[in-house]
Amino acid sequence: MKAGKSNSTGLERRNYKWCYLFLLPSLLIFLLFYLSPILTVIATSFTKWDGFNKPVFIGLKNYMDLFHSKTFLISLKNLLAWSVIAATLHVGFGVLMAFILYAKPKGWKFTRVVFMVPNVISAAAWAMIYKFIFNDDMGILNNLIRRFHPDFHVQWFFQSPYAFWAVTCTWIFYAVIVTLIVLNDLMAVPEEVMEAARVDGATSWQLTRHIMLPLCRNAIGTGVICSITSRIAMYEQIRLTTAGGPGDDTMNIPLILVNSISDMKYGYANANGMVMFALGLIILAAVNYIFRMNDSIY
Length: 298
Hints:
mainly alpha
C-alpha cells in the first residue's frame, strides 16, 4: 500500500511539473504585459511626470487635485447617472429581448436579426450614426418633428440638457451582450423544473417570476457588471459626439485621462486610471453581493 501511494505521489509531482511548465509562457506574458504596467501606473500616479523626464514623487497631490476638480466631480456625477441607467434600462432591455427570443413568438427570427445585426457595428460607428440622426439640419429626428412643429430647432449633442440624453441614446439599446448571456442561461434551465411547475398549475408569469428570473440571477448580475464597467470605460461615443460638452455636461473619466495625456500630465492621468480601476472593483464587489453570485443557484 505504501509503495503504491508513493508511486502515485511521485506521478502527481511529475504531472504538476508539466502543468507549471505549460503555464510558464502565460505567466510570463501576464507579468510582462499586465502586472508590470499596472504596477507602473500605481507608482507613477503619485508623481509629477511628463513622460520624458524622471518622475518626481508628490504624494497624494494628483488625487487631491482630482477630487478638488469641478470637471472630475461632474464626471463622477455623470458616471453615477449612467450607471443607474445602465443597470436598469439598459440591462432590463437586454433581459427583455432574451425572454422574447427564448419564447420564440411569431416573427422571432426577424426580431433576432433586427436586434442582433446592428449590435455588430462598433460603438464608434454607432456614435457617428446617431450624430447624423440628431443633426439639426439634416437629421432624421428633427426633420420628423418639424413636420408637426416647423420652427423646431435643437442641437441635441450641443445643447444642455439634451446632450446627456443624446449620448445615452448611443448605447442604451446596444444590449446584445446582456441578451446573449441571459439567453444562454434561459436555455440551460432544466425542462423537468419547468414541467413540474406547470403540473402544479404555475402560469407563464409565475414561471418567469419565480423560476426563470431567479435561475438567471448570475447571468443578469454579469450583465450589470459588463454594462456598468462599459460606462466607466466609455470613450468613443463621447469623443465623437460631444467631446465632453456643452461645458462639462457629458464629461467622463476616460476623457479627462486622455486630455491629461495630451497635456503631458502622465502622473495625473494615471491617478485617473487608478480611480477607474478602484470604481471597477467596487462595482464588481457590490454586484456580487447584491446578486449573491457566489451562492449556488440549484
